[in-house]
Each structure stands twice: as C-alpha cells, then as structure tokens.
Amino acid sequence: MAEWLYEAGIGEARAALVDGDEILEARIEREGVGPRVGAIVAARLVEAGKAPMVALDWPGAPMASLTGLPSATAMGAALTVEITRMALRERGRDKPARARVAEAGAVIGDGPDLRARIAVTGVPVTELRATAPDRLEQAGWSELIDHIRIGHWPFAGGALWVDATPAMVLIDIDGEGDALALAKAGARSAAAVIRCCDIGGSIGIDFPSLPDRAGRQAIDAAVDAALPQPYERTAVNGFGLMQIIRRRDRPSLIEQVVLDPLATDAALLLRQAERAVGAGTLTLTARPAVIDHIAAHPAWIDMLQNRTGRPVQLTADAASKGTGHAQ
C-alpha cells in the first residue's frame, strides 16, 4: 500500500511517496527559499507597463512578475498579491516568482508547506524520526539523489540521461537491441522520473528512431499509461522526439539538487549527523563551502545539538569530497 514518508529535517523537509521499497514521488522543501505557491504577500509596485514587477515584503525583498494589475495603479503603490509560481533557479539565470493581485480581503500568510500538500493527497502520511529505522534510506533516497546528480538513470536494457537546460529538461534514451522494446522501456522509465522528480515546464524525450507509425503510436500509448495527468504532449515524430508540457509551480527535485549542490550537500550532511551513533562531540567534516553554509545558519547547529544531545563541531577539510561525514 502506498504511503508518504515525511521527515522534518534540519534546513530541509523531505517526503517520499513509497510503494513497498520503491519511491514513486520525492519532494524536498528548503528553508528560506521564498514565499510558497498560494502565499498572500504585501508588495510594492516597482515596474509598470506591459510587464509589471513588484518587490515582495519578504526577507531580501525578492521580485515577482505580476498579472491582474489595474491600469491606473501608480508606481510605488502598496499591493497585496498571491504567489502563483515560486522563484526558479535555472542554469545561468534565475526566474522571479509570479504573482497576481490578491482578492479583496485576502489575509497575509504563507502558502501550504510540504507537509500540508502531501496531507491533502489523501494518502496516509508517516512522520519519520532520526531515532527510528531509516525508511527513506531503505527505499533508496541516497541512490535517488545520486541518480539526479549524475543525470543517469539505468533501467532494464538501457538507461536515461537527464539534463535540465534553461530551455527544457532533456531526456535521452540510450541502449542496445530492439528499438521498439528499448523505446517502450524508456518511455516507462522516463515517465517514472518525470513523476518522481516533479519535473514541470517543457520536457523533451529523445526515443530511438522508429520508422513505422504503429511503433511510434505504441510509444505514445506507453507514455500515456505511465505518466499521470495533467500534461500535454506531442506525438513521437519520425526522428523519435516527443515534447511534454507540465504545469511548473515550483522547482523540480532535479533543479533543487543539481543547481544548488551546496544546499544539497549541507542538508545531506545534517541528515547524516542526526543519525550518527556515539557520544561526546559530534564532528561534521566537509569541504569548506559546505561547512561555511552550515555555519551561516546557527539555528541549524542549535537544532542538531538539541536533537542529538551532543555538542557540535564543524571542521572544514579542503580534501573532502561530496557531502562529507559526521561522527
């Protein structure tokens, strides 16, 4: 039976929809990433015209593009807006959040957090503790993060190469043998990755070329059977290319992990530290950038000390690779 596993980690909440030992969907929500979808925020108009922009009353005064602005609104006007898409990080550039003018009487407040969003799915939620068996790890959490980092997802008979470009997420199906069998297996695997990582926006899948129309229609059907709605797609063309469009309200797991490797490693190191066995000083060792990132959030260190009952020491090691270690 499927269930959500939820973990309120330090600096990062994480959740996985699991069925047996398989992760069907994975989500993370990091501290301090800006207002969530559905947040009602005070704002100030800083740019009018065809592309209005507002400065949000939020730490760091992030910008957001705005729709629904009355034409007579003056520059500098105070507004109340609703966030319709979170800010997005892309390779080489960032995209500001999107907002619309809030309905009259809307109350200032942040949008639903990850815990609230998985609760409304109707699937049972199990909250995990660091002192209990690590069910996330048993389901393959670390392997999932590794696949995302490398962009390589093996499946029986082949593998996917996944790359989040500024234009779209590209999924290349690689393998040997019968082209139709490979394409069908790749379609199922690609759909699983899209669902698991909540990939939105424009997605391109490069299938092995299939000369006959019946084969291409079989691939279309395989994608439709494996990928939950809503989405729009093209048919596979003669070059083996399919484009899928999905709603994009917040960063995908791939964008979060790949485009912010520092936050990824810091969160994984803190997760490891919560589960470290032993007594006395808890030492976290990692490359300097990771240690500096954690040190810049003293509340995380306090939380780790409170959860483990051990004093925490941060040690920068220039020779350390990846996440580092805690002991």
From TrEMBL:
Residues 156-248 form the RNA-binding protein AU-1/Ribonuclease E/G domain. The keyword Hydrolase applies. It comes from the Bacteria. Keywords: Hydrolase, RNA-binding. This is Ribonuclease.
